[in-house]
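User: Hey, my collaborator sent me this sequence without any context and asked if I could get a structure. I don't really work with proteins. Can you help?
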Amino acid sequence: MKKLIIATIIVGTISNAHAGFGDFASKMTQNVIGTSASSNVNVTDFLTQASATNLLFQESRAALAATISTSKMSGEIQAKLKALKSTTNLQEKEAILASLVKPTDEVMAASKKDEAETIEKIKNLSAEKKKYLLAAAQNFGIATLMAKDLAGGASQISTAIISNPQSLTSSGFTVSGAKNLVGDVTGIAKNSSMALVELPQLFKKAGVEFTPPTSSKSKPQDIEL
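Assistant: No problem. I've predicted the 3D structure and written it out in structure-token form, which is a compact way to encode the shape of the chain:
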């Protein structure tokens, strides 16, 4: 996953970003899908929603990693997530999110490699930790569904950005940053089975009941530590 990029217009409202994610994605995507490169595509709206989607995805994925990790990396990730919640400084938030990518990747890879150990870890979680785990999994699935909605308009947005870089003027993005974000959202959508199939199967093996979300309009859960 490329470095997470956050548009200025969305970072300032992170504390309220979870509200209305699904409705916004659905309405905005309908305006993008089926348009041509010459149509009046709202690039700023797309990138704003893509930023929010990517944020929810990265945050929930890190929360999952912190909960299922059997290594000391869990504490490191939890500390970063707490710092993310407590700061309002835009540069600090971006730096924390970027720093979460590597440890989260390592934990998720290790957990998948040693599934038996991960299952035992989940089985032995306290009721409170399991509640937190399921909330993170719910958000992980919602973010994936949102990305799938947005992916339908990704090619049109990419073409619009290349043909008219000035469309980014009010978005807070550079051309390369916008292209990376479109690629990130597309990548999330293409790898949806992890959130919607593999994770629920893992929970089932651990005896934890979990029904993944089926709509991008589902309301994200509070995953405060």
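In plain terms: The radius of gyration is 17 Å. You can pass these tokens on to your collaborator as they are.
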